[in-house]
């Protein structure tokens, strides 16, 4: 039976995968929000494919951690705009950099 191998630093990588961002639904939400100034709730529903309740729950978690802010749309009482906070954007970018370094390491290109 072949010996199992893991990339150098695998323990570091596992600890670097922040559950707040690595959870698939939240990763999808943040990936949709990151390039935009804001995204409205209905557009996030369409982009992520999540149910209304699931999207609401994940946004609430991200909002509680200060990653996103939710603003009511004045002209639409039910409408909400979701924005990534400055700190949330910095933290998410750091997380993405960690993922990129992991991929480079696994592919044998170093982690720089």
Could you walk me through the main structural features you see in this protein, from its secondary elements to its overall organization?
The chain is α+β, with helices and mostly antiparallel strands and 112 residues long. It is built from six helices and three strands. It has helices at 10-16, 19-22, 24-33, 41-48, 52-64, 86-106, and strands at residues 39-40, 68-73, 76-84. It has a three-stranded antiparallel sheet with strand order 1-3-2. The longest helix has 21 residues, at 86-106. The radius of gyration is 17 Å and the shape is elongated. Mean pLDDT is 84; it is low at 1-7.
Termini gap: 34 Å
Residue-averaged pLDDT? 84
Kindly state the percentage of residues in helix. Answer: 55-70%
Shape: elongated
Number of distinct helices: 6
Proportion in β-strands: 15-25%
Structural class: alpha+beta
Summarize the biggest pleated sheet. 3 strands, antiparallel
Total DSSP E strands: 3
Poorly predicted parts: 1-7
Q: How do the strands line up in the largest sheet?
A: 1-3-2
Order of helices and strands: HHHEHHEEH
What labels would you give this structure?
three-stranded antiparallel beta sheet; disordered N terminus; alpha+beta; elongated; 6 helices; about 110 residues
Question: Short summary of the structure?
Answer:
With 112 residues, this protein is α+β, with helices and mostly antiparallel strands. It has six helices and three strands; from the N terminus they run αααβααββα.
